[in-house]
């Protein structure tokens, strides 16, 4: 029995060390997952702000016709920056690009939406293409302008 003196204490110490390591890993995982979830929520909010700007631009085109325009307006806790520019103008069809960026001012998270719309006449707008998350494509090479 004398040869095993302190064995119980050592076993308890090893067990507590393992328990503390597992607890620290769990806390790190939880804090990391909360951070990822918060970033995702901010990105979704920024994208919704950008979509709001794109919807505004579509309504503007339907109501007033197509004009080159650039506007920034507040949306919730951020703002939407909208640009409307002409891509192709032929007798039958006019193609316009609507680019909208939403920015959450608190977190400075930016999300974007780009629409390619064709306008046949005032009030008749058709969305040809949608791209989101600030991955903009060069429409000029796409439509040969």
Structure description:
43% of the residues lie in helices and 36% in strands. The chain contains two helices and five strands. Strands 1-2-3-4-5 form a five-stranded antiparallel sheet. It is rod-shaped. Mean pLDDT is 81; it is low at 134-145.
Strand order of the largest sheet: 1-2-3-4-5
Q: What is the tally of helical segments?
A: 2
Order of helices and strands: HEEEEEH
Fraction in beta strands? 35-45%
Quick recap:
The protein is of the alpha+beta class and 145 residues long.
Chart the SSEs and their pairings:
Layout: H1 7-64, E1 69-75, E2 78-89, E3 94-104, E4 109-121, E5 124-132, H2 139-143
Antiparallel strand pairs: 1-2, 2-3, 3-4, 4-5
Give the tags.
145 residues, alpha+beta, 5-stranded antiparallel β-sheet
